Amino acid sequence: MNPPVIVLVAPQLGENIGAAARVMANFGLSELRITAPRDGWPNEKAIAMAAGALDGPVAISVFPDAAAALGDIERVYATTARVRELSLPVMDARQAALDLMQRPEEERAAIMFGPEASGLNNADVARANAVITLPVKASFSSLNLAQAVAVTSYEWAMAQGGGVSAPVQNIQTLARRGDVEAMADHLEAELDEAHYFWPEAKAASMKLNMRAMLSRLAWTEQDVRSMRGWIKALTRRAGSNEE
Amino acid sequence: MNPPVIVLVAPQLGENIGAAARVMANFGLSELRITAPRDGWPNEKAIAMAAGALDGPVAISVFPDAAAALGDIERVYATTARVRELSLPVMDARQAALDLMQRPEEERAAIMFGPEASGLNNADVARANAVITLPVKASFSSLNLAQAVAVTSYEWAMAQGGGVSAPVQNIQTLARRGDVEAMADHLEAELDEAHYFWPEAKAASMKLNMRAMLSRLAWTEQDVRSMRGWIKALTRRAGSNEE
Questions:
Q1: Which among A87, A94, A103, A110 has the fewest CB atoms less than 10 Å away?
Q2: CA nearest B158 in A: which residue?
Q3: ∠ CA A52-A159-A79 to the nearest 5 degrees?
Q4: B141 touches chain A (CB under 8 A)
Q5: How confident is the model over A125-143, as pLDDT tens digits?
Q6: What is the ipTM for the molecules in this complex?
Q7: Rounded Cα–Cα distance for residues B159 and B155 (Å)
Q8: Which residues contact A135 (CB under 8 A, 6 or more apart)?
Q9: What is the value of pTM for the model shown?
């Protein structure tokens, strides 16, 4: 699936153009269009902030205005913090990414962002098929331009299947309960030997609580082997000290 | 639900501390902890980049190291770009946000980020309950620190129900925006000619709403050809009526 084109309308700061390019490259987007950049183009600060993204991963081109930048695009999403009076569908970045995924493969899409100080004006929002809004606090809603590009690009990468499929991947299989029991038996025997369960009247409940604790923890087979090694090492040392 | 604490371990650039604070405030997070900031604290560049986030919305505190910063935290997520040999569960930011939502309300959680150049070292990753990874391209995986904070903070806001509830419909084979603009220009010119945009005081908003309506409709190429044919036919008739 072709990633969406990112269109920055009249960006003010070169730093934001560069940071947007960098995060686009992070998430696999490859075409950046800017219109009427305030500080001109090329821009040294943009190139520094891009950290290499503009040397291959992301192609950048400059247009006079949003209409020109969108000329060959079939589907346009406009990002805006404010709810508009314009009658356009409103979606969040996740819905926009899923919406993109359901479009014909040959269709070209763009996500459009406004200038830092003011955001997109109504005339440019009115060029879009839909509006994207992000879940910002009403009391602190001014999102940095490159951060807005980051979140929408991230959602596109997630919609491509970039997420982790199973939350508990990197853990080896859990130990069998029989091995956990054997470990508990081992520990209890050694603690008995060390007269740990005292006074006598409390020994039974101390043992029960130890069992419950060992049962609750998600021991892997390796964890059980490690724990038994520690018990052995500690009791060997205790033994040698007694001599 | 209390938002997670963000912990930046040994951040190098004040700009990134400030940008992290700003995006935390955007998405409703309120506590930032930094350890051993390279350029010291307070830092003028951080305060400038925070755009007011450090003047109330986000409380910041400084610790000597990660162990100290995590002392009163019950559950820790470590963000890392590389797959580690450590046997910790690996999840994406969305799964981590859902995981957070399922924890007891009184539990305190933190999301930890490493220094810009190197990321978290293994000793600090080993302090975590789980690892968060983001869907970055292997060929361009170095995500800016504040961008990583943005995505994880965004996912927390989304998990809080910050998204848009209404889904959006799909239509096929759209016309290019250039053709839609040309159609809008054509209709506006003919309506102007017909003195349609009246009274004068309302003309601008009538035109803007007309543009928004034309943008919202999922015009196919055939739709655009039909519409332009209708405009021509109607204006021809109007012309013949004048005779």
A1: A87
A2: A135
A3: 70
A4: yes
A5: 989 989 999 999 999 999 9
A6: 0.84
A7: 6
A8: A92, B27, B154, B157, B158, B160, B162, B163
A9: 0.84
